[in-house]
Amino acid sequence: MIPQSFISDLLNRVDIVDVVGRYVQLKKGGANFQGLCPFHNEKSPSFTVSPTKQFYHCFGCQAHGTAIGFLIEYSGMGFVDAVKDLAQSVGMIVPEADDKIPPAQRAQIQAQSLALSEAMSLSADFYKAQLRKAPNAIGYLKGRGLTGEIAARFALGYAPEGWDNLRAVFPQYDAPALVEAGLVIDKVDEEGRHIKRYDRFRERVMFPIRNAKGQVIAFGGRIMDQGEPKYLNSPETPLFSKGSELYGLFEARQAIRDAGYVLVTEGYMDVVALAQMGFPQAVATLGTACTTVHVQKLLRQTDNVIFSFDGDKAGRRAARRALEACLPHVADDKTIKFLFLPAEHDPDSYIREFGTEGFEQQVHEAMPLSQFLLREAAGEHDLDEPEGRARAQFDAKPMLQAMAPSALRLQIVRGLASMTQSTPGEIEALFELSKPVAASRKAPPRSKRQEPVGLERKIVRAVVTHPALALQLDESALQAFHQFGPEQCEHLVHLVQTAQALGEGATFAALVQGLKDQGADYDALISEIAEAPEQDIDAEAAVLKATVRQLKKDALNAELNEIFASALSTEEKAIRYRENMAKQDMLSREEQSELANR
């Protein structure tokens, strides 16, 4: 787990305007920056980035968060990847709980990563420049119906013939980084002695593969004539893991939001051709089966995923593997479908023969995951025979066990039960499904915590707006929180302690990031603060002091009532009364002193 102190320090060092500005065109507007929201379609800007709060907020769709949150939502990164990305941009090294690597060695690893990234970037520029001078490659791309504009969008290139063309790019052609990046190959003899080094990619159209930040991390090279392999991909490297990357995702992110769904294909050319023909929301797996990591990345981008596979046997096998990768992530608010083209077509050939409208119709008629799963379970089994029905249940069992309990799983269970002449309860009992949906009782509704009001709201607002003010709240203030009741007190103490742990440099952005585990408890207030003009910290400090002082007075008055109503002796009541009044006098003098100093 990454320490909260590191997160706070990181958010203090990065500038959210720079981070968001990489992806959104921002213009200065008063104290803030404005632009078109990247999370929903709009024609006039309602998206605001505050350099003082280090926070973004959309008045249209209510999206908001810190620099870390923006990278997660916009790029589809996980939390750790987003933190590492930001840390790298400001020269910080992310500590990890089980990290036993010395700082010097970690810095060396980071320097190696930067060297590999630089090598990939220089190579991509070289291949792109070579394409302009390669009439055969240009002719091939034009023959596939691609324009120069689409080639530029995907930064397509060309690796010319010859064994060591990259020597012109890298004077130190024998540098280890070139092998580690997968750009060159070292040939060795049977005894492991080095014989020669040569370029991995030769006479191929080059498809750069970019990560979520737009950095080139690998290549796919396609041969133009006959030969094998038709596609040659970069090997696994410290930068590139084909089981977790998707070709075209960087280019397609905004189009996916605009279309409301992502189209997953099998090849580079499918992605580029579909973008050319009006489907820029397409991505592709990289010469490997769809993995659960791929599915997670896709579902971070959109709630609607459509897999498009070739109609041949290989396409059907790929679809089955994608189905299995999706099952652990199936949810009632997600829609996953499968598009199967005729056996002789892939997306590229189909759209060229039947046009955009024909392919759009195929997308519209894609098969829902539930239907595909039941079809796979049925297979070619004879459902008129007990043995065939039993075999269908046998084949369905691991797929249903991979799914979390949900309404959709219940619907599939019911479909399987109908298909195999069983009941949903029998299927769930037979499959030992965790928390069977059909048999489970409805859980009692959770009691929603009341929104803070009055003095409680003033304290919460002051602490969230300026977390450093929490350091002014001593133990007596925390004790006074009991006035609000047990649940409110617990939440308020947690908020104050979270803010205090961030120290004197605590910021609104750092605290909001630290409150992520509180779910929606503070969302409304955070949105309100994000929308409001920047509040002067001295004014907020005065409000907080006055509010806590009033809370303490209320507590003392309540204690006074308890004293008079108690069974204490007259002398004990007098002692407690004098103590109480002394505390009240001290609070009054404190208030008068502050008023005099204003």
TrEMBL record:
Q: Domain Toprim, which positions?
A: 260-342
* UniProt cross-references to Gene3D superfamilies, sorted A to Z: 3.40.1360.10, DNA primase, catalytic core, N-terminal domain, DNAb Helicase, Chain A, DnaG, RNA polymerase domain, helical bundle, Zinc finger, CHC2-type domain
EC nos: 2.7.7.101
**Molecular function via GO:** DNA binding; DNA-directed RNA polymerase activity; zinc ion binding
Top-level taxon of origin: Bacteria
Q: Does the keyword DNA-binding apply?
A: yes
Recorded GO cellular component terms are: cytoplasm; DNA-directed RNA polymerase complex; primosome complex
The UniProt note on the cofactor reads as follows:
Binds 1 zinc ion per monomer.
Q: What InterPro entries does the entry give?
A: DNA_helicase_N/primase_C, DNA_primase_core_N_sf, DNA_primase_DnaB-bd, DNA_primase_DnaG, DNA_primase_DnaG_DnaB-bd_dom, DNA_primase_Znf_CHC2, DnaG_bac, DNAG_N
Required co-factor(s) are: Zn(2+)
Instruction: Fetch the CDD domains from UniProt.
Output: TOPRIM_DnaG_primases (cd03364)
Q: Which family does it belong to?
A: Belongs to the DnaG primase family.
Assembly, in brief, is: Monomer. Interacts with DnaB.
State the function annotated in the UniProt record: RNA polymerase that catalyzes the synthesis of short RNA molecules used as primers for DNA polymerase during DNA replication.
Q: What is this protein's name?
A: DNA primase
Source species, please?
A: Pseudoduganella dura
